[in-house]
């Protein structure tokens, strides 16, 4: 019953729990109150605070007398409710004494505003085993878009929840109702370990784990059954990974745990120039105005140089590299006296020549454009710095056919989920890959429109779109955050600390999820959407539990989600479906 | 010269110690040997102890004119009697019993008065029903006395209804002490036969002659004096009495602080000490030491027992807010007289 000793307001009230009943945090409750004219008003809310205390005693030490059976006292068990919905929207307070019930069935649907959702998919299980519906229209861009997940690494399991959401979207049937299931895709960047390279393999631990959880929580059925999802791995997955370093005709993906089914990807040197990828090599290029100017200029020069041909390599006439020093780099000369640039290292050497060596160290005036030497040197030095990582990725020594074969094609027919493994790359190369792929995706969608939704899962947003400073990748991410939803690109971003991510990216997310947070972090303004009690609790969330906030429900809801049905490590892969080495070999050789 | 403090707060009427001389008759009924009696363990069969108290409140004095032209004084009053039920062995939580407010409209004799039902404007605050009761006289204080009488009667009935029976016949020892009632204050009316022990917190009268009073100072916590049969000088009321000490007196307090007088009903003829009375006396020390309060929690500690304090609190609450009741009474009268309020 609603308490009369605490204020009851339309947004929050306390209620007393009758003896024998039990209420925990996150339980959803419903209250019906009556206006003086007899018409009912229903309040739906979530319990965000529970407490017990001895009533009728004055001193803290009285508890000893109560326990000893000397002092009569009753235990007062009360809970606070944050109202999520008032129906009809008459914001009168509930009356002390109004009965409070657990929200179940239809009440639960109303409490979570599920009746307002035309299409929804399961976002996890509530504490009592009921399903939390998430409004798909706020995910796919119809009314809102983007999902943002925050939480401490390792404990908050942000990636797991992002994958669970993808699994729920793909497999819950929410897509089929609109006939878009076969066209909706996901692009996942794997930034940590090789965790995501087994998405297509069943997890052999899922059954025992889920049975244990079902027994521990006393659920009527397994969590996957309750959610209406199959406990099966992802389907139609392609794995892309950068090739191993080293020249040669065989291009081998640079992965260790997975033996097959991973496609290496490379960009041709000409593409690099033509498609103006140079700025993405410098995530902090705009930090200095001069450097940004040099990058822009050289980007332009390279694009011109590359125009008009489609061989993977570039040819230049005005460079005769000193073969003594470049011997190791295997320079080839064309028949017409042109030099062929076919490795990334050669490209850097060429740029170095143009900027710093030609004209007795003056550089080519058209390339230098009166920039001072320090800036030019900084530019070259940075390029050299990423050379090791980018050299295997950007190549001109392949035949055009093979270059086309290894071009990353994120929208390949028959592929629903693309996993791009970038965990082995250095920070700059990671940014480069993310930036280039996202921009290509964005430009593709700009041309072809929004009809196929593409979900982009990207962890460590704070690295790619930091709050401070500008970078080309941040521009792409901002574009996606701000315009992506109308183009059908939905960003499922994650980061440890939302306070360090560009504000507009976080604020554009319709659905926000919080896992375990550092308590100091939880007090930052980015988490103001969480009520105070939830912020305090974000510090003690266990793995597998998330606070989910969506536009339809004014308060966040705590959910847990099942153990992944897909393997997240090599040793979780169920044995019988492991691929034979022969297949793997064929894969590598592109047969 | 030695000066020591009376432990009770000064705004309380009378201190703990009064020490008027007693003019009645005392008989050694238990033993002629005047020495401290050691406490005995509480027997297992004593399963329940009730602590009973009552409380009254005059809510408004009234002047009544009835339809026949008669007029007189009266008063709206409320009283509560209630009990705390507890297990002396501490195996059950203590619970409140029968704490319910009763209301009455006491009035001078010779008036025709209808029951009074106060119905509130606010549906949450319930109805107040005042039953008419005739007071003994037309004196202005008579309604208050009537209220007190009604309350004491209810208290008496509750005390004895809950307790084991005490046989006052030498041949009858079937009754065992399974339930004991501790009543707050002296026993006021006639014996109804229950095992009821009254706890007198103050010592207004010094019953013991000077040569015996020294024992009160020497008692150790839990110890008691032998049981005495007492008869008042001016009336026929007889009681068994004994003293127990609940705690050591602090050095600044008078040496009899912490000592409490206990009473039980006694037959008029001092020829027989019922075994139950002796049992009650034996367990009274350990029992009351357990129930005794702490000075920082209750200014009348240790005599005001923990359950009594809780019961007083609950009874006050059961009568409701005095301000609210007075306002309701005023609104009721306004409605009766047709005055807009």
Could you write a compact summary of the structure shown?
The complex is a heterodimer of chains A (about 600) and B (about 350). With about 600 residues, chain A is an alpha/beta fold.
Q: Helix coverage percent of residues of chain A?
A: 25-40%
Main-sheet strand order of chain A equals 11-10-17-9-18-19-8-20-21-22
Q: In what order do the strands lie side by side in the largest sheet of chain B? A: 2-11-12-13-9-8-3-4-5-7-6
Report the β-strand fraction of chain B as a percent range: 25-35%
Structural class of chain A: alpha/beta
Q: In whole angstroms, how far apart are the ends of chain B?
A: 64 Å
Question: What do these coordinates show?
Answer:
The complex is a heterodimer of chains A (591) and B (341). With 591 residues, chain A is α/β, with parallel strands linked by helices. In chain A, 31% of the residues lie in helices and 20% in strands. Chain A contains 19 helices and 22 strands. In chain A, the strands form 5 sheets. A 10-stranded mixed beta sheet of chain A has the order 11-10-17-9-18-19-8-20-21-22. Chain A has a 5-stranded antiparallel beta sheet with strand order 1-4-3-2-5, covered by helices on one side. Chain A has a 3-stranded antiparallel beta sheet with strand order 13-15-14, covered by helices on one side. The termini of chain A are far apart. Chain B is of the alpha/beta class. In chain B, 22% of the residues lie in helices and 29% in strands. In chain B, the strands form 2 sheets. An 11-stranded mixed beta sheet of chain B has the order 2-11-12-13-9-8-3-4-5-7-6. In chain B, strands 1-10 form a two-stranded parallel ribbon. Chain B is elongated. Classes of the chains: A alpha/beta (591), B alpha/beta (341).
């Amino acid at each position: 019953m609603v308490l009369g000793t605490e204020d009851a307001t339309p947004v929050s009230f306390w209620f007393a729990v009758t003896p024998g009943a039990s209420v925990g945090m996150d339980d959803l409750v419903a209250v019906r109150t009556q206006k003086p004219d007899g018409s009912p008003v229903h309040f739906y809310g979530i319990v965000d605070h529970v407490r017990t205390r001895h009533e009728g005693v004055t001193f803290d030490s009285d508890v000893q007398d109560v326990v000893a059976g000397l002092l009569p006292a009753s235990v007062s068990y009360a809970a606070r409710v944050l109202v999520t919905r008032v129906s009809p929207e008459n914001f009168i307070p509930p009356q002390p004494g109004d009965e409070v019930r657990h929200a179940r069935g239809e009440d639960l649907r109303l409490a979570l505003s599920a009746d307002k959702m035309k299409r929804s998919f399961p976002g996890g299980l509530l504490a009592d085993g009921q399903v939390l519906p998430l409004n798909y229209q706020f995910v796919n861009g119809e009314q809102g878009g983007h999902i943002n997940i925050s939480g401490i690494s390792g404990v908050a399991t942000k990636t797991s929840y992002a994958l669970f959401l993808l699994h729920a979207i793909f497999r819950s049937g929410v897509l089929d109702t609109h006939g878009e299931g076969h066209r909706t895709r996901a692009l996942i960047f794997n930034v940590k370990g090789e965790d995501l390279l087994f998405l297509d393999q069943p997890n052999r631990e899922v059954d025992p784990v889920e049975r244990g959880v079902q027994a521990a929580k006393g659920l009527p059925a397994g969590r996957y059954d309750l959610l209406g999802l199959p406990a099966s791995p992802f389907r139609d997955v392609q794995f892309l990974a950068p090739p191993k370093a080293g020249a040669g005709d065989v291009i081998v993906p640079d992965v260790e745990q997975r033996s097959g089914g991973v496609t290496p990807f490379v960009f041709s040197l000409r593409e690099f120039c033509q498609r103006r990828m140079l700025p993405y090599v410098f995530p902090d290029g705009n930090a200095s105005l001069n450097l940004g100017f040099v990058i822009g200029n050289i980007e332009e020069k390279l694009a011109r140089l590359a125009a008009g041909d489609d061989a993977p390599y570039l040819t230049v006439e005005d460079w005769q590299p000193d073969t003594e020093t470049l011997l190791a780099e295997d320079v080839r000369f064309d028949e017409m006296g042109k030099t062929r640039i076919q490795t990334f290292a050669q490209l850097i050497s060429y740029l170095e020549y143009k900027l710093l060596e030609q004209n007795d160290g003056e550089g080519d005036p058209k390339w230098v454009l009166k920039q001072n030497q320090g800036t030019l040197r900084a530019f070259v030095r940075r390029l050299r710095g990423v050379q090791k990582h980018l050299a295997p990725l950007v190549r001109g020594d392949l035949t055009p056919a093979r270059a086309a074969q290894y071009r990353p094609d994120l929208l390949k027919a028959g592929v629903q989920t693309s996993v791009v493994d970038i965990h082995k790359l250095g920070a700059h190369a990671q940014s480069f890959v993310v930036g280039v792929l996202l921009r290509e995706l964005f430009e593709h969608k700009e041309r072809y429109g929004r009809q196929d939704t593409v979900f982009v899962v990207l962890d460590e947003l704070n690295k790619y779109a930091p709050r401070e400073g500008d970078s080309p990748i941040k521009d792409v991410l901002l574009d996606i955050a701000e315009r992506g939803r109308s183009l059908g690109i939905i960003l499922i971003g994650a980061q440890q600390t939302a306070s360090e991510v560009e504000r507009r990216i976080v604020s554009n997310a319709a659905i926000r999820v919080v896992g375990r947070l550092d308590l100091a972090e939880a007090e930052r303004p980015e988490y103001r959407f969480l009520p105070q009690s939830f912020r305090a609790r974000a510090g003690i969330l266990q793995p597998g539990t998330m606070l989910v906030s969506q536009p339809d429900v004014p308060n966040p809801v705590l959910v847990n989600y099942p153990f992944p049905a897909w393997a997240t490590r090599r040793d979780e892969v169920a044995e019988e479906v492991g691929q034979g080495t022969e297949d793997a070999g064929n894969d590598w050789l592109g047969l | 010269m030695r000066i020591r403090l009376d432990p009770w707060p000064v705004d309380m009427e009378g201190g703990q110690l009064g020490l008027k001389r007693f003019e009645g008759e005392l008989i050694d009924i238990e033993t002629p040997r005047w020495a401290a009696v050691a406490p005995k363990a509480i027997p297992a069969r004593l399963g329940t102890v009730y602590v009973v108290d009552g409380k009254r409140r005059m809510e408004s004095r009234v002047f009544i004119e009835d339809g026949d032209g008669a007029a007189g004084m009266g008063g709206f009053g409320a009283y509560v009697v209630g009990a705390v039920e507890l297990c002396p062995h501490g195996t059950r939580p203590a619970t409140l019993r029968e704490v319910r407010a009763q209301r009455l409209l006491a009035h001078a004799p010779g008036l025709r008065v209808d029951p009074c039902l106060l119905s509130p404007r606010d549906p949450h605050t319930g109805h107040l029903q005042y039953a008419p009761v005739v007071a003994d006289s037309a004196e202005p204080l008579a309604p208050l006395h009537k209220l007190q009488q009604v309350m004491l009667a209810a208290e008496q009935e509750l005390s004895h209804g809950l307790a084991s029976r005490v046989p006052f016949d030498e041949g009858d020892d079937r009754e065992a002490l399974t339930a004991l009632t501790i009543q707050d204050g002296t026993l006021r009316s006639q014996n109804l036969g229950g095992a009821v022990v009254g706890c007198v917190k103050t010592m207004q009268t010094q019953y013991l002659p000077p040569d015996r009073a020294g024992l009160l100072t020497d008692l150790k916590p839990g110890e008691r004096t032998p049981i005495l049969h007492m008869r008042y000088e001016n009336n026929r009321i007889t009681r068994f009495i004994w003293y127990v000490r609940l705690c050591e007196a602090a050095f600044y307090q008078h040496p009899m602080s912490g000592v409490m007088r206990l009473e039980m009903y006694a037959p008029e003829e001092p020829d027989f000490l019922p075994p139950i009375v002796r049992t009650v006396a034996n367990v009274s020390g350990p029992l009351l030491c357990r129930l005794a309060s702490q000075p920082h929690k209750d200014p009348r500690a240790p005599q005001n027992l923990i359950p009594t304090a809780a019961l007083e609190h609950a009874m006050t609450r059961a009568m409701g807010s005095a301000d609210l009741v007075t306002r309701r009474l005023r609104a009721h009268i306004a409605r009766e007289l047709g005055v807009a309020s």
